[in-house]
Amino acid sequence: MRHFLIAALFVASTPAGAAVVIDQNFLPPPGGYAGGQIYDNGPQSIESAQTVTVGSSGYLHHVDLLLGGSTDYGVTLRVRSVTGGVVDSNNNSALTSVDLVSPAWQFAPSFSYHTVSIDLSAANLFFNAGDVFAISLEAIDGLPMVFGGWAGNSSGYAGGRAWGRNLRDAAWTNNIGVGSGDLYFATFMSDTPSESEEVPEPGVLALFALGVSALGAARRRRLA
């Protein structure tokens, strides 16, 4: 019985790994696509965004985006709040932002599309099922690229909508530069924030120390 108790202490002291699961998946099979145009031209910035409706409560762990281009580029990805169906236009109030530079070899020698994964786990963004947020991409170095999506006027994702704008901090509209409809993306959720996946809490450390002490006491009794 004592050994079972010691084993239980060690099990209880082991941090559980966070399960990362796909929440929304609107990535296409290989092929040719249109989508939201993104480039930088001084004060103007053609920026595209996609709203997302959360399916399962959890922390936003990472997103996969279909991006197209013919050379390396630099963009800023932002996760934005959505209030009353309206995407937040203020860059300074974004929920989180990530500067992204694609490897040049991905797009050589001609224009092509690739799925790019962006880690957002450090932001600890928790959403409840039914919440709506937006993913936006803005060019920061002048090179044109595309946030891939459906061509034409149909919407492929009933829980969201594609948006665009051509002036920084301007209101968002349904103009996304190339084609229209929803943009290709996938979202992944985690059941715990990123910090708890790597750093045990004080209570966990105390349980671990108790387990070590119990093992030592049991060994001393056997030797005696």
What do you see in this structure?
It is globular and about 40 Å long. It has 224 residues and is an alpha+beta fold. The chain has two domains: 43 residues, no CATH class; 173 residues, Jelly Rolls (Sandwich), CATH 2.60.120. Helix 1 packs antiparallel against helix 3. Strand 2 and strand 3 form a beta hairpin. Strands 1, 2, 3, 4, 5, 6, 7, 8, 9, 10, 11, 12 and 13 form a 13-stranded antiparallel sheet that branches.
- The percent range for helix content is 10-25%
Order of helical and strand elements? HEEEEEEEEEEEEEHH
Class inferred from helices and paired strands: alpha+beta
In round numbers, the mean pLDDT is 76
CATH topology of the largest domain: Jelly Rolls
Give the SSE layout:
Blueprint: H1 2-13, E1 20-26, E2 34-41, E3 44-53, E4 58-69, E5 74-83, E6 86-87, E7 96-101, E8 112-119, E9 126-127, E10 132-139, E11 145-149, E12 162-165, E13 185-190, H2 194-198, H3 202-223
Antiparallel strand pairs: 1-13, 2-3, 2-11, 3-10, 3-12, 4-8, 4-9, 4-11, 4-13, 5-6, 5-7, 5-10
Helix pairs in contact: 1-3
